[in-house]
Amino acid sequence: MMFQFNPINMASFKYRDRATIFRDVLKTIKRCDEGGRKYTIMKHASLSYDQLNKYLLFLTNMGYVKEIDEPDGNKYKVTEKGSVFLKSLDDLRLHLQR
Question: Which residues have CB under 8 Å from 67's CB, separation 6+?
């Protein structure tokens, strides 16, 4: 039996696209007042440790997130550029839901 496209079935897909993952990571970091730690981001964005490291590397290289070195472990904060990017992702999501 071949798979037939049915828009109702779209909600059953479990995978997220990269834009959604970027949004989840940035929103999680923003919610942490003093900066997000890897474990917190990983847990709330539903990512593995390896996935989180890849996304954080990309976001820091692009200037959307900055890494803060602290004696008890690194924290991450969303930059102004990251806030603009997050707003763009939120706007895109709104347009796609219409």
Answer: 56, 60, 74, 75, 76
| Phi, psi at 65, each rounded to 5° | -135, 145
Predicted pLDDT at 14 = 62
Identify the architecture of domain 16-97 in CATH.
Answer: Orthogonal Bundle (1.10)
Residue 82 burial (CB count, 10 A): 23
Cβ-proximal residues to 57 (8 Å cutoff; 6+ apart), any chain: none
pLDDT at 15: 78
Given a contact cutoff of 8 angstroms between Cβ atoms, the answer to whether 90 and 23 are in contact is yes
Torsion angle, alpha carbons of 34, 39, 42, 48, to 10: 160
Q: CA 58 to CA 42: how far, in whole Å? A: 15
Residues written for the chain: 98
Low-confidence ranges of the chain (pLDDT < 50): 1-10, 12-13
